[in-house]
Amino acid sequence: MNYIFNKSTQTYKNLTAYASSIAEPGDNLVVLLTDLDAIFNIAKRRTAMRGRFATDGKGDSMLEKLSLTDDERDWYDEIMKVGGPEIFRKMQAWTKGIDSAYRHNVKFGNPIVAGQITSATTTELTFPALNPALVVNALANKKIIITTPGPNMNQERTILSNTATTITVSVAFPAAPVLADEWVTFPITGNFIIQYLKLDASWDLNIFIGLGAAIEEALTLYAVKEWYKINRNTNDFPIEEAEYERQMQKVKSQLLSYKVPARRVTDMFQ
């Protein structure tokens, strides 16, 4: 799931919508979202499939030992805090100058509304009336994030209630948001790794479909290989580790081939 995000307007477009419009890169960033819940489920299926066919020295099934289950979710969450940044380091050349270009375990959904603060406490934000006007408590149980650089940038809170011009959050911000701080709200739809890349005129947007899939596969392989490592599975760990390294090269290769290809009228004859 990938988007183009405009920092000035605080709006998101999917790649199809962006490609169909006439737009210069400007303040736009590429947003790559990887669903941590989906990766966990894929890793569970893969390890269960392997466990079905594996036996120990006595010929007994190793399904129970090799299968990643819901009981290991805490372990998975911790190990992905290492795996996510490891993959992100392959992409850092394309993220220079972007604050918080990597964010881990973020609740994300398609943005609903955005606004600008006129006054605030640490738990209540006031803003001008929106058009169309907000319905009372229409944003309850959704997320709000402060997007302006400062002490609260990228701070997320769950919304308790709202009026047409105020939002009250469940947990106080570290500091009271200041005048002109901008915010955006969205529903809670999943746990994501979010990575932001610079967008310029040379990007070929078609690569982002494959790039998102390549990152997801790399994260899945990371989880599986680490699971085999902690279980001292000396047969499968080196296989998965080698696959992981190959996948990491695919991620980097796709980024290195990001430019829009130059076209000549004679290309079709070559």
Please tag this protein with its features.
12 strands, 5-stranded antiparallel sheet, 32% helix, alpha+beta, 270 residues, 7-stranded antiparallel sheet, single chain, 22% strand, 6 helices
Could you explain the architecture of this structure?
- The protein is α+β, with helices and mostly antiparallel strands and 270 residues long.
- The chain has two domains: 2-106 and 192-269, no CATH class; 112-189.
- The chain has helices at 15-19, 36-53, 63-66, 73-88, 207-230, 237-256; strands spanning 2-6, 11-14, 28-35, 102-107, 114-116, 119-120, 124-126, 143-146, 156-162, 166-169, 182-186, 191-198.
- The chain has a seven-stranded antiparallel beta sheet, with no helix packed on it. Strands 2-1-3-12-4 form a five-stranded antiparallel beta sheet.
- Strand 1 (2-6) and strand 2 form a beta hairpin.
- Helix 4 (73-88) crosses helix 5 (207-230) and helix 5 (207-230) packs antiparallel against helix 6.
- The longest helix has 24 residues, at 207-230.
- The radius of gyration is 22 Å and the shape is globular.
- It starts with a strand and ends in a 14-residue tail after the last helix.
- The model is unreliable at 261-270 (pLDDT under 50).
